[in-house]
Design brief:
Blueprint (H helix, E strand, L loop, with lengths): L4 E7 L5 H11 L3 E3 L2 E3 L12 E5 L2 E7 L14 H19 L3 E6 L6 H6 L8 E5 L5 H11 L4 E5 L2 E5 L13 H20 L1
Antiparallel strand pairs: 1-5, 1-6, 2-3, 3-4, 4-5, 6-7, 7-9, 8-9
Helix pairs in contact: 4-5
């Protein structure tokens, strides 16, 4: 599979990688070795060429992302349909893998906590999952203050999914790319402070 990629990425931590891979393997046959596997239809967008890639403590489910490239007004007409497939699969795997955090990404990699500490201006937190255990009560309050009413939210049993882009939520709620980037950086900074404590 060639770039551009759409990734459903989850930080599970290196200590939990084997358990996370076993959970994915229970649903989807994985072929390969090391840190890169063919995971046919794991997302359901590009069929047999989809992949699972392990990078440090991050599990990435990777598929074709061409429909999501370009200015938002000129995206592939299939982007909304494919984005809803990605959203449903992302939420499913967030529940299954119990990551600390995760994100739906197009041509951008999810940072692990050490990378976030070094460079907290992340663009990963535009369509993301955050586990309840990631933040204390005060930080959760700050997160909701940052988001205001501009983003889509979906409460999950162990965390929260937030989407700032119309293609990755069922009600097409979104904001401009610039607004989403600014909020992503603020959320990454909030998470980085919480991870330091």
């Amino acid at each position: 599979m060639d770039a551009p990629f759409l990734e459903l990425a989850y930080f599970v931590g290196e200590a939990n990688l084997k358990q996370a891979l076993d959970k994915v393997r229970a649903e989807t046959p994985l072929q390969g070795a090391g840190g890169k596997f063919t995971a046919s239809n794991v997302i359901g967008i590009a069929g047999p060429v989809e992949q699972l890639v392990v990078r440090g403590g991050v599990v990435e489910l990777r598929t074709e992302g061409e429909a999501f490239c370009g200015p938002s007004g000129r995206l592939d007409p299939r982007a909304r349909t494919l984005g809803n497939i990605a959203y449903r699969r992302f939420v499913h795997f967030a529940d299954l893998l119990s990551p600390l955090y995760g994100a739906i990404l197009v041509e951008y990699s999810l940072e692990d906590p050490d990378e976030l500490r070094r460079y907290p201006l992340s663009l990963a937190f535009r369509n993301f999952y955050l586990a309840k255990r990631a933040l204390d009560v005060r930080a959760w309050s700050k997160l909701h203050e940052i988001l205001g009413d501009r983003a889509y939210r979906h409460a999950l049993p162990d965390g929260l999914y937030v989407s700032m882009m119309t293609d990755f939520n069922p009600v097409a709620k979104g904001m401009t790319s610039g607004e989403a980037q600014e909020l992503s950086a603020r959320i990454a900074e909030l998470l980085t402070r919480a991870l330091r404590d």
